[in-house]
Amino acid sequence: MNTPSKPVPLPEDWSRALAVVAHPDDLEYGAASAVARWTAQGKQVSYLLVTRGEAGIDNMEPSQVGPIREAEERHGASLVGVHEVEFLTYRDGTIEYGLPLRRDIARMIRQQCPEVLITLPPHLTWGDHTLNMADHRSVALAVLDAARDAGNRWIFPELLAEGCAPWNGVRMVCLHGSAQPTHVVDVTAYLDQGIASLQAHQVYLSHLSTAFDPAAFLQQQAAEGGQACGCQYAECFEVIMI
Question: 210 pLDDT exceeds 90?
Fold first, then answer.
């Protein structure tokens, strides 16, 4: 039986990253603290949201929720130094893995030319064995495949007609929240920004069925991550090399 190796510091010898997730607030449950570190270093990080999270509040109509959550995401992103936030038009809760999703993500990769992609894990469950919802899994798997698709001119040749030249410069995909972390990022100096980014989702958080303290949640999670790298606070990622 192989013993899991201790997570190591995530390489930071890159300049551009694209984060792709299903919903507003997906990145704010910890990954945004690492993003704050990277933008402070002068790296360019962009966000791509596959939906507007319009099905996320039970007692509000999706037509009302979508614009609110989009605005909250843009504000939260700005607090960690991200000013380029794009949204696709997939319906919240019904994202399907397939060629259309791979194509849309590959298009953005070709346009942005990132070296690093950030998303959630495609695994069926989180570390505590609770279900990882279908939207997260579908998007994560599509991100992993689109990382390769973006570099092959014979996959989605219609993108060439749009002026999207192949980009094979993606080096790694970083999965935040994986139960099998391989790398850590010291966010001790940036946790407050990460907390503020999650707190920016005020309307969404106020409608959760149970009380939730963003600061306490992120502090506990980052403290556990810090134990893995000998610092006060850290966020953990499973890194897939491309």
Answer: no
